[in-house]
Structure formats: C-alpha cells, structure tokens
Amino acid sequence: MKPLNIAVLTVSDTRELATDTSGQYLCDTLVAAGHHLADRVIVKDDIYQLRAIVSKWIASDDVQVVITTGGTGFSGRDSTPEALQPLFDKSVEGFGELFRHYSLLEIGTSTLQSRALAGMANRTLIFCVPGSTGACKTAWSTILESQLNSETKPCNFVNHVKSPK
MoaB/Mog domain: which residues (predicted)? Predict the structure, then answer.
C-alpha cells in the first residue's frame, strides 16, 4: 500500500482537542491504516476560516487528502458544503450518495439531513463527513479505507492525487 499524507479538519464551535472524538478517531484510524497525519486543525464553523485552512492544504505539496468532520448538517451554523464546494475542481458525487446509502442502514431516514460531499482541488482529495464519531466510522470503514488504499481494485483514488515533494 502507498501511504498518503492526510490532513484532518474538525469543524465545531464547541469541540477542543480533548473532546474531539471524531477527529481523534480519524487520526488514529488513518495512521493505523498506514497513512501519515499531515496536519490536524479544529476550526469554528465559519465559511472563510474553513476556506483559508483548506486552501492552504490544497496549495501545499505535502497534503494529498483532506478529511473534514462536522458542519455538514442543517443547523444555522453548518456551512462546510458552502465553504468548500466552491474550491472543488471536480466533485465526487458518488461519495455523498454512497455515504447516505450506508448511513441509511444505520440511522434510517435521518440520513437525508447529511450533506456529506467530496471533491478534488489541485489534485488534493477533500472528503466532508458529518461530525458524529459514528458517521466518521461509517465513512472510513465503508468508503475511505478502501478508496485511499492503492491496492483496492478495480480502482481507487491514490493515482489521482498529487505526489508529495
């Protein structure tokens, strides 16, 4: 397997490092899978702060994948899709569809309120998943783990991301 450099962004107005179970799950799991944690940030749910952090990672030669957790629901402050979708060069429509399919099996029709999405910008993959630890586990175990593994056949995303410098 070819390890990737993955950055994790938690979008929350209330979480701190000590209480960020979703971000910690993603960090622990990606490292256990053989990838490298390139960076980890917790940011308030603010469109411009989200864009600034992710834009920096998109421009970096050292970040190949960004996984965000949080800000994908329907509450007044949830703004991850509005913040990040304009940065995409290409959208990965199937990610949100597939995430909601797997989520339906776990939480029923409440999955309709998930605005999980993904895209590619400057050959950097960006996955935006809900903020619950359960949603992060679902996204990782059913989609991300295999699609970020160079050995997954017939295809995966590894050949589409930029090479680190």
Answer: 7-150
Residue 68 tokens, joined = 């965000």
3-state secondary structure of 87: helix
* Contacts (Cβ under 8 Å, ≥6 apart) of 103: 111, 114, 116, 135, 138
* Number of domains the chain is built from: 1
Report the C-alpha gap between 69 and 9 in whole angstroms: 6
- Closest by Cα among 91, 92, 86, 116 to 104: 116
Q: What is the mean pLDDT of each run of 10 residues along the chain (165 residues)?
A: 97 92 98 98 96 98 97 89 97 96 93 94 98 96 97 96 89
